[in-house]
Design brief:
3 domains, four-stranded antiparallel sheet, D-amino Acid Aminotransferase, Chain A, domain 1, disordered N terminus, about 300 residues, single chain
């Protein structure tokens, strides 16, 4: 595949980022068509998009809701969640910092999660279950950025992340008491104008990451994407209706957003709001799923 050969040729993510930054002069629509072709091996239809992956690219180019900036910022989104009357689902905050140089690791608890406020797709996140084993210098290198310098562009041309002032947050580490080595289940709920329709559930993240697709009524779908299906049915949480209610409230301001929640030891926690899942570059199996997920994604052409 072209993209795989590209990554083998240019192994450094930092180098690939520099190359993409040099191509900032290329218009978004043209760049997205090129990336879509390279990654999914088909043409991108931005005039009359039907696929979910096409509508995500349309979203990047055309949808400009300033509220998105707040919602993708890992610190400022906390105020958005509070504004919906959902402060109780926020993961306890340990600290907010302007740069990695401001973090006093000696004062942090034995376990925590530290992440940049302006990254997407799980980038720039460090999970620390045991501080005594943490390579602090490596963390400092991974999470380094120039303070107070806003991002002018995004590698994926994702408008919501552009112009964000970077920062760092440290939060409490959530632990699944029944199986701490596996990690916690991640419930990613696809919502359209405030209505949850589908979700993916990520399990066993640290012992063999797997993912199941479900409809909002918890009917399992025979679908895979960039991650294999679990070899078992995942039990529906007892408070799943409450999760759907939360997702509805957090998504009501947008044509589409994926609401990511955790459900740990019976308590629901907020993860993040994701406007561009997989950056719109994912191959579903079967391919019809791409059209199915796109049906309820209503955009104004």
């Amino acid at each position: 595949m072209i993209m795989e050969r590209y990554k083998k040729l240019i192994k450094s993510p930092a180098t690939r980022k520099k190359i993409l930054n040099l191509l900032r002069f290329v218009p978004d629509s043209l760049m997205l068509k090129l990336q879509y072709r390279i990654k999914l091996h088909r043409s991108l239809n931005l005039k009359n998009p039907a696929r979910f992956t096409e509508k995500i690219q349309w979203y990047k180019v055309n949808y400009r809701n300033p509220l998105m900036h707040q919602c993708v910022d890992k610190y400022n989104v906390r105020d958005y969640v509070k504004s919906k009357g959902l402060a109780d689902i926020l993961v306890p905050l340990i600290g907010k910092y302007n740069s990695i140089g401001d973090v006093d690791f000696d004062k942090l608890p034995d376990s925590f999660v530290i992440k940049t406020t302006h990254g997407g797709g799980g980038l720039n996140v460090v999970i620390c279950p045991d501080k005594s084993k943490l390579d602090i210098e490596s963390v400092k290198q991974k999470l380094f950025f120039e303070p107070n310098k806003a991002k002018k562009t995004s590698m994926g041309r994702e408008w919501a992340y552009c112009g964000l002032i970077p920062g760092l947050v440290v939060e409490e580490l959530l632990v699944n008491k029944e199986n701490p080595d596996a990690g916690i289940n991640d419930y990613k709920i696809f919502c359209y104008n405030g209505k949850p329709e589908y979700l993916v559930v990520d399990v066993d993240r640290y012992i063999g990451h797997k993912r199941n697709f479900y409809k909002a009524d918890w009917t399992r779908m025979d679908v895979s994407s960039d991650c294999p299906q679990a070899d078992r049915d995942i039990p529906k949480p007892e408070n799943f209706d409450r999760m759907l209610d939360i997702a509805s409230k957090l998504s009501e301001d947008f044509p589409f957003v994926r609401v990511d929640l955790y459900n740990v030891n019976g308590k629901i926690y907020f993860g993040e709001l994701t406007f561009y899942p997989w950056s719109g570059y994912v191959q579903f199996n079967p391919d019809e799923t791409d059209f199915l997920l796109g049906e309820d994604f209503k955009i104004v052409l």
